[in-house]
């Protein structure tokens, strides 16, 4: 996950050369955000997969509870209504045109 | 300040609602692949490329696009008979086997359902694609990315200003950051 290890056996010298190529931080984080398989051999990755699962459900929970809080507190707030309608319209329109 | 940030949090959050749901639902689909049927619908058709069109894969793809194949040309493989060209957009994937001698293109069309579509939208990024609609998605994806960062920052501020919830918030934030940063460092340095 954090890079590649290349092992090269050099028979003439009877030596094993190990090259460690580290991924840059953005690529590392990009890979980390895809880890969701809970059957990881490495305990750290297994923990991270659980953490990602928690984050996924949290994201959905935050989105739904956010809309609920808006509707429960200030449902008639005009600018909020326009924001919601504008965002939803853009998504639905793009989805329909792409489909 | 509090009122401004509270309204900013509200406007951004509900404007990005469907985009955030798209990320959330597609993440659930990717994390639990057995929960959803992702079997695409497959059809095949044959098209003839006009003699005026050059033998270049881009020109062939451009002509096929005019017949209704919409999407970005992703890969081209050259073989003895001609080319295998892949064109895709969220929800549709075309595999085109073009035969140079007959100028015929056998098109295999895979179309996906709602979750397949969300999965593909989840992976969109950037505005360098040769299909304009993917670039439009790329612009909104970038805006939603910035929105998510602002939502996080304003959310933390709004919580901090709610004095009654500071103690429990600090505990939860500390546990969260502790687990997240510790695991990232352990994996990065493994």
Give your account of this protein's structure.
The complex is a heterodimer of chains A (99) and B (190). Chain A has three helices and two strands; from the N terminus they run ββααα. Chain A has 99 residues and is of the alpha+beta class. Chain A has a domain at 1-34. Chain A has a two-stranded antiparallel ribbon with strand order 1-2. Chain A is elongated. Chain B has two domains: 2-34 and 134-188, no CATH class; 41-111, N-terminal domain of TfIIb, CATH 2.20.25. Chain B has a five-stranded antiparallel β-sheet, covered by helices on one side. In chain B, strand 4 and strand 5 form a beta hairpin. The longest helix of chain B has 30 residues, at 132-161. The two termini of chain B are 44 Å apart. The chains are: A alpha+beta (99), B alpha+beta (190).
Instruction: Give me the strand/helix succession of chain A.
Output: EEHHH
Largest sheet, spatial ordering of strands of chain A? 1-2
Q: What structural class is derived from the secondary structure elements of chain A?
A: alpha+beta
Q: How many strands appear in the DSSP assignment of chain B?
A: 5
Number of separate domains of chain B = 2
What is the rounded distance between the termini of chain A? 34 Å
Number of strands of chain A: 2
Total number of helices of chain A: 3
Mean pLDDT over the residues of chain A = 92
SSE sequence of chain B, one letter per element? HHEHEEEEHHH
Structural shape of chain B: elongated
Oligomer: heterodimer
Low-confidence stretches of chain B: none
Strand content of chain B: 15-25%
Interface with most residues: A-B, 40 and 39 residues
Largest sheet of chain A: 2 strands, antiparallel
């Amino acid at each position: 996950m954090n890079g590649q290890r290349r092992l090269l056996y050099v028979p003439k010298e009877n030596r094993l050369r190990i090259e460690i190529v580290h991924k840059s931080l953005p690529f590392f984080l990009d890979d980390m955000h895809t880890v969701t398989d809970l059957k990881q051999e490495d305990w750290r990755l297994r923990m991270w997969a659980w953490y990602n699962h928690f984050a996924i459900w949290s994201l959905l929970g935050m989105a739904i509870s956010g809309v609920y809080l808006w509707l429960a507190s200030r449902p008639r707030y005009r600018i909020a209504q326009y924001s919601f309608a504008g965002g939803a319209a853009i998504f639905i329109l793009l989805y329909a045109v792409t489909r | 300040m509090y009122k401004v940030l509270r309204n900013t949090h509200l406007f951004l959050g509900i404007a990005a609602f469907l985009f955030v749901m798209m990320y959330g639902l597609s993440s659930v689909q990717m994390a639990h692949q057995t929960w959803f049927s992702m079997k695409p619908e497959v059809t095949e058709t044959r098209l003839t490329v006009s003699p005026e069109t050059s033998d270049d894969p881009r020109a062939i793809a451009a002509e096929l696009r005019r017949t209704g194949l919409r999407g970005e040309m992703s890969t081209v493989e050259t073989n003895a008979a001609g080319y295998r060209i892949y064109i895709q957009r969220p929800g549709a994937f075309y595999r085109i086997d073009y035969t140079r001698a007959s100028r015929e293109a056998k098109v295999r069309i895979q179309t996906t359902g709602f979750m397949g579509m969300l999965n593909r939208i989840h992976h969109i990024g950037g505005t360098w694609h040769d299909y304009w609609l993917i670039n439009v998605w790329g612009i909104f994806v970038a805006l939603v990315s910035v929105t998510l960062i602002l939502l996080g920052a304003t959310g933390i501020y709004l919580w901090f200003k709610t004095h009654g919830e500071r103690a429990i918030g600090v505990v939860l934030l500390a546990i969260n950051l502790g687990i997240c940063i510790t695991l990232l460092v352990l994996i990065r340095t493994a």
